User: Fold DUF2627 domain-containing protein from Fictibacillus macauensis ZFHKF-1.
Amino acid sequence: MQRLVALLIMLIPGIIGVIGVKLMRDVLFGIVHRGFFSLTLQFIIGLLMLLGGLAFVGGFIFYRDRKRNKVQPKFQRKPSS
Assistant:
């Protein structure tokens, strides 16, 4: 059950990142989607969506690896006093 929840948590930001890539790709071909009034705005929103999705997925993986002590020593948590 926990793996399914983790998959769903990872799937949503992944889909957002893919939509961001699609928006940026469509700017190269000059396709403006509904809701955007300029290609520049569409590209910026797409870039933010891509970066947000990547940051969430990367943070999730980093947090999981840090919890399991699979990161370099400089990224490990300091022992609490």
About this structure: The chain has one domain: 2-73. The chain has a mean pLDDT of 92. The chain is about 70% helix and 0% strand. Residues 2-73 form one domain.
